[in-house]
Amino acid sequence: MTDVSQRARDLLGRLLHGHGVVARITEVEAYGGIDDPASHAFVRTPRSEIMYGPPWRLYVYRIHGHHAANVVTGPTERAAAVLIRAGEIVEGIDVARERRGPVADEALARGPGNLTKALGITSLDLGTDLLDPEPVSLGERVESPEIAAGPRVGVRLNADLPWRFWVAGDPTVSTYRRHPRA
After folding, report:
1. Of 8, 77, 106, 168, whose Cβ has the fewest other Cβ atoms within 10 Å?
2. What is the pLDDT of residues 93-150, one digit of tens each?
3. Domains of the chain: total
4. pTM above 0.85, yes or no
5. Mean pLDDT of 49-74
6. Would you say residue 106 lies in a domain?
7. Whether 89 contacts 20, CB under 8 Å
8. Could you list the residue range(s) of the whole structural domain that residue 119 is in?
9. What is the distance between the alpha carbons of residues 110 and 172, in angstroms, rounded to a whole number?
10. Residue 22, exposed/middle/buried by CB under 10 A (0-12, 13-18, 19+)?
11. CATH number, residue 61
12. Average pLDDT value for residue range 60-71
């Protein structure tokens, strides 16, 4: 079994296609499902049910008024998933700019909410098979980047687990913010 942290690292440098925009994934966070108290699947609920389904599905939820997109990695009984935290817009930059407004290009998809907004991902995309070409899909790996690792952003439980991975030195990566009650 490939663990969720390895699958998270394997997503870096891959393309994420969404609604006319393509981003190269530059930052992710792994969530270990039933073994990880920071994961939505730690306690099985209707919201987390998608995480117990087949891998390579899109788990989308709202947080702080924004959407966040996760790749369900499985295995099914473990309910693991990877949050896509940031990316570099490589196609459809004008569409991403329209969706995001006047921000620097490197900030268009920096942070989970900005990434989903730039790619047009909403709750309507929940459950999308990411191996199908539409409406949201994972594409090929366009680089094998140097990977850095550190603690996850904004979680109270299991906060020091080094399951946040990013492309070292990439300007699209978000700033680390520790949860105040971690």
Report:
1. 77
2. 999 999 999 999 999 999 999 999 999 999 999 999 999 999 999 999 998 999 999 9
3. 1
4. yes
5. 93
6. yes
7. no
8. 4-132+142-167
9. 5
10. buried
11. 3.10.300.10
12. 94
